[in-house]
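Sat 14:20. Reprocessing the chain from the morning session after the first attempt stalled halfway. Input below, unchanged.
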Amino acid sequence: MSGEAHWLDLAVTLLGAAAIFVLLTLVTWHRRQHAKRLRFVCPSRGEQVYCTMLHDELQGRWTEVRSCSAFADPRKVTCDQECRRLLNLGRRLDPGTPPRLTAKALHP
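Finished this time. Tokens:
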């Protein structure tokens, strides 16, 4: 070959670089959001709840309440997600008081 296919080398190199770029983007995007389990007093209901929330690591923001113990079916969150809004404003939510063991509970 006397130089007719030099474009082929360039095309293979560009396709390889594009494939690597796409794979790195997908891996980064997948790791971007993490589910975290939190316990706090719900600002709407005033009771202690356990929530699983998605946190966007790149933006540093809470994006979604995935589940909440305040509901009969924790995976069906139907509130306005005031807790997520407050956390994104930098407010700390009160974790509530953990249940205390009493002497009566220890020795019935």
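Strands lie at 33-41, 48-56, 61-68.
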